[in-house]
Write a structure and sequence with these properties.
This protein is mainly α. 51% of the residues lie in helices and 11% in strands. It has seven helices and six strands; from the N terminus they run βαβββααββαααα. The radius of gyration is 48 Å and the shape is elongated.
Length: 255
């Protein structure tokens, strides 16, 4: 079922080029509207099916920095669209009761009989943001108070405010990334320091076994060298029959 809200004015309804433009086109960020006259009054019916008003949205919830960013982006886009269709930007309502939200998108009511200026209305809206800010979120507080302060200036530029807010967000992100990189560098350096200070421990059993084998080989080699002259002498004086050793004389020089 279609859900709508109606704004009434104590003046006779007259359909001008604004209403014809609104009813003939789907303007991004602007709620569909139909105008009608009733008992000498002007009635403007806005289709808000599937959407929730900003006022209802923040009755129990706080406004985050992300919400502010989405709002400003949607408002900037709506302003561009309204001007593209030769409509008056000051006719956009910035009362929380007439701003609606659906799926990370804000929608605005275009009210042809509005007389106040958009810039003043936006500052009053920032006062509402201050009251409903998430004071547990530092980024939310900084963003909202920055927006409130900037809109106090005379003839402020919404485009410049948008640029500053987005730049600050990118700057904070870059700062966090740099801090994370520094932490990682410190952790790597600490590990290196621990590795350099730690004594190298290893199993010496294999080394000892190899040393024993080398020592044994050396002993056998020395023993082999010691008995070599004796073997030569025995081969030189070998007789046909073993066991007769009466004539066996070993000269010292032969050894």
């Amino acid at each position: 079922m279609e859900r709508k809200i109606t704004i009434e004015e104590e003046t006779e309804y007259k359909e001008d080029y604004q209403m014809r433009m609104l009813m003939s086109n789907e303007i991004i960020g602007i709620l569909p509207v139909r105008g009608r006259g009733f008992n000498g009054r002007s009635c403007y019916d806005y289709n808000v099916s599937g959407k929730i008003s900003m006022r209802a949205m923040y009755e129990r919830n706080e406004i985050s920095a992300k919400d502010i960013k989405i709002f400003l982006e949607c408002l900037s886009m709506a302003l561009e669209e309204v001007q593209k269709y030769l409509l008056d930007i000051h006719c956009i309502l910035l009362n929380p009761e007439y701003i609606f939200y659906e799926e990370e998108q804000f929608y605005f009511c275009y009210y042809p009989q509005k007389t106040s200026e958009l810039w003043k209305d936006l500052h009053e809206l920032t006062e509402y943001f201050v009251k409903h800010a998430d004071y547990q979120d530092e980024e939310s507080v900084q963003t909202i108070f920055f927006l409130h302060r900037e809109t106090m200036e005379e003839n402020y530029s919404l485009d410049k405010i948008m640029t500053k807010i987005l730049y600050q967000e990118d700057e904070r992100k870059e700062t966090r990334e740099n801090e994370d990189r520094e932490i990682q560098k410190k952790e790597v350096q600490n590990r290196r320091n621990l590795w350099e200070k730690e004594e190298v421990r290893y199993d010496t059993r294999e080394h000892d076994w190899i040393a024993e084998q080398e020592m044994g080989s050396l002993i056998m080699e020395e023993t082999e060298n010691l008995w070599t002259p004796v073997r030569r002498f025995l081969r030189k004086h070998k007789k046909p029959r073993w066991g007769e050793w009466d004539d066996l004389h070993i000269e010292e020089e032969e050894l």
